[in-house]
Every structure is written in C-alpha cells, then in structure tokens.
Amino acid sequence: MTPHQAVCHLSDAFKAIMGEKSASSIATPFSRTVIKWVALNAPMKWPHGVKTMPEVDQEIGGTKPLEFVRDRHALEALMEQFAVKEGRELQPHPMFGPMTTPQWQRWGWLHMDHHLRQFGV
C-alpha cells in the first residue's frame, strides 16, 4: 500500500461505516466479541498485512488514487463527518459488528494511527 492508497483506503472505510459505500461483512460471534475487544483495548499496535474488505482495497474494489491533495482533503472532510456521527447512525463494522459511539471513536483513531505509523507519520 502506498501513502496515496492509504488515504483512499481510509476514505473508503469511513464511507462504508457512514453508509455511503457498501462493504461485505465477515463478522462472526468470535470477531464481534473477542477480536473486537482485543483490537480496541489491548495495549498493542495493530499488525500490518491483515487483509481488508475488497471494497476498501485500492487494488481490488476500492477508490483509485487520483490527485493526492484532493484525495487528502476528501479524507479530512470524511473524518469531520465521522467525528460528529453517533454510533446508532453508523453501519455495523464488517468484522466487529455494531459498536457504541466510544468504540467507533476508538476504532477511528486506531485505524488512522495504524496507517499513519505505516508510513512513519
């Protein structure tokens, strides 16, 4: 994943969660409980190389990077929209299922942090 692809991936992820883009579900009882708790609460960084949904994978069905500054501004706008959404207005997470507002906020921060660290930002 390139930095530009990461920007588009993050935008696609926010769009899917806010209902602006579809994403397939792979949620199971185990992922909705144990994996969600570990991902949101364990004091460890998220591992790299975990497969994502095809709809948010820029090499499969995700939004293709076009112009970095425009794509970055679009991500910033989506982050602002996401920040004011309540959990009940969001789609279930493809792996973690329904989440509370604090869980969504934690996921948003961790997902952004994961990809920013990926590129040393």
In terms of topology, how is this protein built?
Blueprint: H1 3-17, H2 29-41, H3 68-84, H4 101-118
Helix pairs in contact: 1-3, 1-4
From the structure above, extract its key features.
globular, mainly alpha, 121 residues, 4 helices
Oligomer: single chain
What does the radius of gyration come to?
14 Å
Uncertain ranges: none
How many domain units?
Answer: 1
What is the helix tally?
4
Taking the alpha carbons of the first and last residues, their distance comes to: 15 Å
Strand element count? 0
Largest sheet at a glance? none
Backbone structural class: mainly alpha
Helix content: 40-55%
Mean pLDDT: 92
General shape: globular
- One letter per element, helices H and strands E, the order comes to HHHH
Strand content: under 5%
